[in-house]
Specification:
heterodimer; A: 316 residues; mainly alpha; 0% strand; flat; B: 302 residues; 71% helix
Chain lengths: 316, 302
């Protein structure tokens, strides 16, 4: 098991290097001289002297051979220095740390919505195969796949904030502020989970070990939960890595609509302001968390699937 | 649409087939497709969207860009069937013109993505070895980013605008498809008819064009259909954030953005474009799923 985790951790290294190379290369896509844009932000009357531009070039690690530039940039990044925001002049990493808790709270709540809405619907659909709960769940799953999160957010605001006036529509305060953004983020992802769990549950319920469990006198609840659901959940767990990426992407829209002070809103504001180091910081942060989430799932996976667990143990 | 739904109840000759017999060939695929009600619904929705994209500008009753400010925020009426927006522009006209922008932009991205993915996937799968390893490491690197976040970041550097949004979306989404196509090519490459063609002295390019591509074409068609829906959604999202089509051009995501401040006064402005996006994406997804089931009844590919 330790060997398996270690091997999986080693596989991450080239991926992380790849992420850093692509993120660094993005700077060269920018039209014009980034150092000049940077210097202009901080110079008096927006007219930087050549010395200012040279200093900016040094600070952005934009001098010398490209490989030298990358190594200098990556070296600083390893030490948590991604340069300063063009807008605020503060260090990008520090800025992201300010916005990060709000985003993590939102994505975790979105994941909770998937757990509470998407998964039970999949189980119910499988148990009532081809009866009305199944039809309802399939309809929900179908809608959930194509529904734009930004439209769903507007619909939720209209219904709960404007018409019913139950919940606030913008900002971050107490738990009441969290409900609508979390729903907007989670419902969109729920549909595909309902669909997946319905399929895997139907498959599990038709297996021989279910018949065997029933024959041994296991009660209906025991059969469903301990025997069918446990096995049906295994593919669902692997899908969660992908969903984490979708939640991070969805957070960009949801945070913008609800004025939620998270990394997604920070990213959109940075993009509009051509704040290159902040955009780099955002994409680096988002992809590294995405990779970390997938790594965690790969580590947890053998623990819930006994077949893979024993294989991983055997090969370790 | 109602005519098609009415026709669904009559499967005709196809209904008499036993489900255990899987027909091969185009006719079998067509029959399986026609039996799938959701797939037919998807095809009808897609046909409507394509029709609106092709003929929208001629069907639109008003100018989509210049409205009558005195008639702003109107609800349903005979003059404006879907109401007007905050500048008094006719929503139906903007929707029809927007269909053209959304559909053709999404199509352009899909064509670019599928072309790149096919070239990379076929090269990697057919050549194998170091070429395969190098190309797949590149694919892994790009897949380490959530694709929407990668396209957002690319737009951050390229700048806003439709052309740049399309480039960013293409660069961010080809990798996953390249990997799927490579897998399909690997499966085909191991079959004996490729060996026969190689022994008969076929050139690699000839074998790829004559034997490999036809065998992965159904995968490519399914991927492309699903991708158009995803691209329409992504483009609407980018325009909603102010990073896609620039105002005052009519675009569905932008229409949603424009409607947001007036949620309390005229929610119709938000219902119309949102519903258009949702139904369109649903249509492409249903069509794609239906094509997959029809072209690959064993459910092995994709």
């Amino acid at each position: 098991m330790v060997g398996y985790v270690a091997r999986r951790a080693l596989q991450i290294i080239p991926v992380v290097i790849g992420i850093s190379v692509i993120t660094w290369l993005m700077m060269s896509l920018a039209p014009g001289d980034a150092a000049e844009i940077y210097a202009r932000q901080f110079a008096e009357n927006e007219r930087p002297t050549p010395a200012d531009i040279e200093r900016a070039r040094k600070e952005l690690a934009l001098e010398g051979h490209p490989i030298e530039q990358y190594l200098r940039w990556a070296g600083r990044a390893v030490h948590g220095d991604l340069g300063r925001s063009f807008r605020s002049g503060r260090y990008v990493v520090r800025e992201i740390m300010i916005y990060l808790p709000a985003t993590l709270q939102l994505t975790a709540s979105g994941a909770l919505v998937i757990l509470v809405i998407g998964l039970p619907m999949g189980v119910v659909a499988a148990l009532y195969h081809n009866r009305w709960p199944d039809v309802l769940a399939r309809f929900f799953a179908l809608l959930g796949v194509g529904l734009p999160s930004f439209w769903l957010a507007l619909l939720l605001i209209w219904l709960f904030a404007v018409q019913l006036q139950w919940l606030p529509s913008v900002g971050r305060g107490d738990w009441r502020n969290l409900i609508l953004p979390a729903l907007a983020l989670g419902i969109v992802g729920s549909g595909s989970y309902t669909r997946l769990l319905r399929a895997t549950m139907l498959d599990a319920l038709s297996q021989e070990y279910i018949t065997a469990a029933r024959a041994r006198g296991v009660g209906p609840a025991g059969v469903v939960i301990r025997h069918a659901l446990r096995n049906a959940l295994i593919p669902v767990v692997t899908k969660f890595g992908l969903t984490f990426g979708a939640l991070l992407s969805g957070a960009v829209f949801v945070e913008t609509i609800f004025s939620w002070p998270g990394v997604g809103k920070f990213a959109v504001d940075s993009i509009s302001a051509k704040d290159y180091p902040s955009v780099q910081g955002f994409v680096l942060f988002a992809s590294l968390t995405y990779v970390a989430a997938n790594f965690l799932i790969d580590v947890v996976y053998p623990l819930i699937d006994p077949r893979i667990g024993s294989r991983a143990r055997a090969s370790a | 649409m109602s005519a098609a739904v009415a026709g669904l109840g009559t499967p005709g000759a196809a209904g008499e087939l036993t489900p255990y017999l899987i027909e091969t060939g185009a006719q079998g695929a067509l029959r399986r497709f026609a039996r799938n009600r959701l797939a037919v619904l998807g095809a009808v929705i897609v046909a409507c969207v394509v029709f609106a994209a092709l003929c929208g500008p001629w069907l639109a009753p008003y100018d989509p860009i210049n409205g009558d400010i005195l008639e702003r925020h109107q609800g349903f009426s005979r003059a404006h069937p879907l109401g007007t927006d905050f500048l008094g522009r006719d929503q139906l006209s903007r929707l029809l013109h927007g269909a053209r922008a959304s559909f053709f932009a999404a199509l352009a991205v899909t064509v670019a993505v599928i072309t790149i993915a096919t070239v990379v996937g076929v090269t990697a799968g057919y050549c194998g070895g170091a070429v395969d390893a190098a190309l797949m490491r590149m694919v892994d690197m790009i897949l380490a980013f959530p694709s929407l976040i990668l396209s957002l970041a690319l737009i951050g550097f390229l700048g806003p605008g439709l052309d740049k949004a399309l480039v960013a979306m293409t660069l961010a989404s080809w990798a996953g498809f390249a990997r799927i196509i490579r897998g399909q090519v690997l499966a085909v490459r191991g079959r004996s008819f490729i060996e026969v063609a190689e022994c008969a002295g076929g050139t690699p390019l000839g074998i790829i064009l004559r034997h490999v591509l036809p065998n992965v074409s159904s995968t490519i068609v399914v991927l492309a259909t699903l991708d158009i829906g995803g691209n329409i959604l992504a483009l609407a999202g980018l325009s909603f954030l102010g990073l896609g089509l620039r105002p005052p051009a009519p675009e569905w995501g932008r229409m949603l953005f424009d409607a947001k401040p007036y949620l309390d006064r005229q929610p119709l402005e938000m219902f119309v474009p949102g519903l258009a996006i949702a139904i369109t994406v649903l249509g492409f997804n249903l069509l794609g799923d239906g094509l997959r089931d029809a072209l690959d009844p064993s459910g092995e590919a994709v």
